[in-house]
Amino acid sequence: MEDLAAQIVSKAQKLGCQDAVADVIQNRSYQIRFGRNEPVISNRWREAYASVFLVHDKRVVATDIKDLSDIGGSLERLVKIAKASQRNPEYAGLAKGNFKYERFRPDPKVLSLDNGSEFVEAAVHGALDQGAKECAGSFWRYEDEHFLATSNGMEGHDHRAGLYLSIRAMVSLESSGHGIACASRLSQFDPEKAGRKAGRIATLAKDPKGGKAGRYDVVFDPLIFGTLTDQVAGRLSAYSVLAGFSPFGKRIGKRVASAAVTMWDDGSQESLARKKFDMEGVPTKRTALIQKGILKTYLHNTSTAKRYKTRTTGNAGLISPDPHAVFVKPGDWSKDEVFSEVKDGLWLTNTWYTRYQSYVKGDLSTIPRDGIFHIRKGEVVETWKDIRLTDNLVRLMQNVVALSDTTEQMMWWGEVSIPNFVPYALIKDVNITRSAE
Amino acid sequence: MDGERDLVDYAVDYARQRGATYAEARFERQEPEQFILKNGTLDALYVGADRGIGVRVLAKSGLGFAATNSLTKAEVKAIVDDAVRIAKVTKRSTPITFASEDPITTNWSVPEVTKLADVPVEEKIQTFQAIDKSVADLGFKIPARYFQLSCNRIAKYFANSEGSKIASYSPRLRTSFFLTVVNGADAEQSHREYGWSGGWEGIRELKVMDRVLDEAKSMQRSLLEGKKSPEGKMDLIVGPQVSGIAAHESCGHPTEADRVLGREASQAGKSFIGPDGLGMKVGSEVVNVCDDPTVEHAIAFYMTDDEGVRARRRYLYKEGRVNEFLQNRETASAFNTHSNGASRAVNYNVEAIVRMANTFVEPKDHSLEEMLQDVKFGVYMKSFMEWNIDDKRYNAKYAGREAYLIENGELKHPVRRTVIELTTPTFWSAVDAVGKDLEFEAGFCGKSDPSQALDASLGGPTMRLRNVYLR
Question: Where are chain B's structural domains?
Fold first, then answer.
């Protein structure tokens, strides 16, 4: 595997390609899904394939080669297709440079982990211990190894691994809570804590009544604040901006969030998405996205960077630039102070199904799930259900008034697509709607 | 595919030798060809050649699945060993069981008049460049024009330890567009998606050019002539696109048996319909909602599912009541019934779970004109942009893209951003007339972990709802 990426690039060049990238990936991940407090299936993968990006006379073509025994044939077919394709005048080449990569290795204890049953049991036990009756979720041991080569001479090896557990605890259909555990090191993995949090929220959320539409000051738990920051980061890909999928077009240097908000993308820091390099072989690094509320940059690969007359941010994917992991600078409020600041408002713990009426304006709605609490002076006075958050992404970020002083790594199915390190957040004047009878 | 069939058959036999009480193996070869045309420029063309084998076994009390893309006997042996071992170490109070089903030996394929593989990529690109040019030539201000074409050819071979051996071939075509039309600081955005099981003739059959131009014109009209949508209780007529999304979200999902049982609770959620919910009233008597994998040329067409069970039409809601759940063999066993062939996987490397296929409101006999006649004041919401629904599938929202005011039975000016935010029973109970103009759109249905975004059709005719609250 070590030499395969370079062989692919060399072969592509011999076939006339000016630019080529090969990322040979070995996936050895393992998963246990559980439902109704018990495992429902265990999954294991043994996959090895090559993600390949070729450019022939400005004609760009990409593929995943699954049949590694016929690399030559696959490349010949691909180049033939590229020749029949059309030039992309916006393509501006691959990154060049004398890049050096950080040295880090995954935790050997994570790599040698062969059975995650005890983590599932610990999480379920934690939730049931708090009063939950039914739990579902998944445990993951991620492991993939990347061997990257580019036609600009970049070669790199990156072995990535981590542990993840997501648990939803339920007391009844409408009384539930969610917990997340993420760690790159076995010693830092605490699924029972995630279970306890899910169980505690579920128990607190007993007997909900229908919520009331209106404008509220809202405390966002890290999981749901992570949904917002994940949306922001995704919409800051230059590709999203160019395609009309972003409210951040023409807003570089403008205020897009309150002064309390500073966030950055960083694939080089420890997270479940830690990686040494992007798909062009550019070392990952910290990239300031929003500094005290001011938009600093979009996320770029070499081609989008040229279009915006700037430099790549090291976020190249196979086709478009994408965020690696999002970090929000913690505030100087304690968690209790954030809650106490709310005289009469809501505490939301999770959400899903975030959709836009207008991407360019940022008009969206999303549906809170799991614990929804009406709070006064930081104390829960009622549990609600059946509400919808209907607002605007930029407006929400501009209305952030307080962030707690610690962050947690959040990642969750669909809504928080990459690791987001987020605190508790207080956002004022959030629009809440609900179904009419 | 003989070599792959041998490996699949070997995997099933070897799993039984290793102690699996049930074993199945599925080979899939997918050959996707996709491109994006962004503002007239071809972005990267993606051409895949994906294939591999997945093995699923019942052993002791557990269910194990393992997959590889290395098609050697040694590697297939290794994944069988993996699947059996992880199933055996599973600790459960009750073993997972599958409902019994008759074994099937068959070979089916979808007719492909003009083979997708025979149409040069240049011709495919040029087809969409012509559409893009036609839109640009309208003279509207359209700063973002985004077209996507995805062709896929899916060949499968499935075998299980009960004697099923099934080969299949499904060519599929999917096209979507996303337009942004602006007028000063105002903007209207639209995303539409269409799918076809079959060959390149689907582009003609789907009338993509006409649909794109009609959409751009209606967006421009909304921008120039659109007024605020009225608020309050009134009559509502929804077009096929809205009926289709409601069929999928507010009927198909809540009747998925695995969701009802809690297997998906942590991700896609549960259902407002409980395990004893068959017969529960959720709508008026004119409401029939079906899921049918055998609708010809619909993008989720299949004749046997990924557990080797024959496909058939399922009446999920019948005469306004919950009539049937979507079942696979695992959920059917829990309900002491049989699978109705609703088990699908997005590829070889993930387990098959309960999925919708082509879900639609069954058409009846009304025309749009007949439905309009009886409406004194209301809104005709032809299509939507934003939508979502809670994880128990009870509170849905559909925000209008193309909509018009209705006064005294006549369509008036466009109205913008009409919002339907209703509970599932409120929505379906308000339906008093169902049209005959059944149409389908395509969607990706998301479920499971790892997430499986699967081809689905969303369909329906025009429907009339009486006295519902709109914003």
Answer: 2-225, 228-470
